[in-house]
Amino acid sequence: MRRVAIVGVGMSKFGEEWTRGYRDMLIEAGSRAVEDAKLSGAEIDCMYVGTMAPGSLVGQEHIGALVVDSMGLIPIPATRVEAACASGGVALRQGYMAIASGMHDCVVVGGVEKMTDTPGNEVASALGGAGDQEWELFMGATFPAIYALMARRHMLEYGTTEAQMASVAVKNHANSSKNKYAHFQNEITLETVLKSKEVASPLKLFDCAPITDGAAVAILMPYEQAKKHCEMPIEIIASAQASDTLALHSRESMTCIKATQIASKKAYAQAKVTPKDIDIVEVHDCFTIAEIMAIEDLGFFPKGKGGKASEDGKTALNSEISVNTSGGLKGCGHPVGATGVKQAVEVVWQLRGQGEKRQVKDANIGMTHNVGGSGATSVIHIMKRDG
Amino acid sequence: MPSENLAITWRRLPERYRLIGNSCENCKTNYFPNRKLCPKCRRKGKLMQKQFSGKGTVYSFTEVATGPAGFELESPYVLAIVELEEGPKITAQVVGISGKEVKIGDSVELLFRKIMEDSPEGLIHYGYKFRLVRKN
User: Fold this and answer.
1) Strand, coil or helix: what is B77?
2) pLDDT digits (tens, 9 = 90+) for A131-141
């Protein structure tokens, strides 16, 4: 297997982008990535695009062809990857494997979702497809409800509080207020979260990631070529993925995401690092409880202590571990298929020292953690800068 | 929710109307909804139909303020994961109460109820819901 590096990254401004569609957002992100990688474009020989539900959201399938066409990259192979909210992370893994295997030498990995063309309850139904359509959705489950069921168990089993969950949203808004690409540019208070409208008890509006439009792109090359090509290639030193049951109710424990535990163990072994070596991590905080479970499942805090750690500020910028420097899904926004790629974009920026006002000191090793559905798919990457 | 056609509804009747799942004779694990393949034994498994009692306890719950498309009239409603006495856990609504009147561990029993309507002229879907068992 060949070593793999990211040589260029870019993203579109995340938010409610009423005037822009798939093509506009991907071209914005893609052009920035190609420019960042100092490529002409002719070197690119393969493309993967992560997107979850373009068919249900805007009636468009065949996104691989749409993207390769609009980016002027015909006739390279272009493939759409779908793994619900983990579509972007799984697309990145396909790109990693394409380079590592020797099959391709310059791969573009994109992620995109166009969500605000669709009424809210239809978006909720489309996203519900990440769970079990016949046995969860049919009974009236929404995604906030499914994560609420996990939150309620976490509160019972570990004493996690609503204020601890709220502190995750406050921290992620603080980070996203320093990120010019983020959906939300404002800080919020604990009170704002706790007094927001209940969506699915105990989760309130500000416990939930928003509905966002956006795209993100990363360009991959073999590490040896990347070293000659650019000043600071960021090597992907681990890529791991695991699966679990589609429906939450089929799992033994609902206070952890087992696929995350398994994938992270594999990733740490591949990269030959431990949780203590990770300086920054982008975790999948589709709901505040999801970040609390993630920092436990990834081994940064003991099981059941994630809520307390968040409340005590141990996950803020430049603290014990800087979690979701981009603002995460909550602050930066969650254009579903784009999220997994955006996580990699943020980690690359941080490792290169381009994190602007949110730059973490001495960030050498970073991680991305992208979850599909309620945990049926989990995909993890670890990245490292040279020297 | 995407509308379901009649064929989908028909093939789910044993589970949705009568709470019939299955059980693997090889490893003795009970499944609801039924599995087409025992995930533990795979081809060595032997799945047999099983009638579930409809008795269970609340494993977790939430009050959903706004349901997905098709559940507008129901909202708000209590959605729970019910642990059936035979082992499997299922997602279902608990009726006749608000989220403040239920707690984890409460005993519940099966009811047959309308779940939702596809559209004003569409199919009416029925299936299982639960209610709290009244303590005397």
Assistant:
1) strand
2) 999 999 999 99
| Backbone angles phi and psi of A50, in degrees to 5 | -90, 125
Domain ranges in chain A are: 4-119+212-234, 132-208+236-381
| Rounded Cα gap, residues A154 and A177, in angstroms | 29
In the structure encoding, which two tokens stand for residue A94, read together?
A: 């396909």
d(CA A125, CA A137): 8
What whole-number distance in Å separates Cα of residue A137 and Cα of residue A249?
12
A200: which chain B residues are within 8 Å (Cβ-Cβ)? 62-65, 79
Task: State how far the Cα of A262 lies from the Cα of A103, in Å rounded to an integer.
Answer: 28
Q: Which two tokens stand for residue A315?
A: 């996950």
- DSSP 3-state of A378: strand
- Min Cα distance B18 → chain A (Å) is 15
Topology agreement, domain A4-119+212-234 and domain A132-208+236-381: yes
Give the nearest partner residue to B90 out of A133, A202, A249, using CB atoms: A249
Q: What is the pLDDT of residues A356-375, one digit of tens each?
A: 999 999 999 999 999 999 99
Separation of alpha carbons B117 and A106, rounded Å: 50
Contacts of A152 in chain B (CB under 8 A): 60-62, 104
pLDDT above 90 for B124: no
CB distance A199–B63 less than 8 Å?
no
Beta strands of A157-316 (E only): which ranges?
198-200, 203-204, 214-222, 234-243, 280-282
Counts of helices then strands in chain A (DSSP H, E): 14, 12
Q: Between chains, do A200 and B64 touch, taking CB under 8 Å as contact?
A: yes
Residue of A nearest to B125 (CA): A138
ipTM of the complex: 0.95
Q: What architecture is domain A4-119+212-234?
A: 3-Layer(aba) Sandwich (3.40)
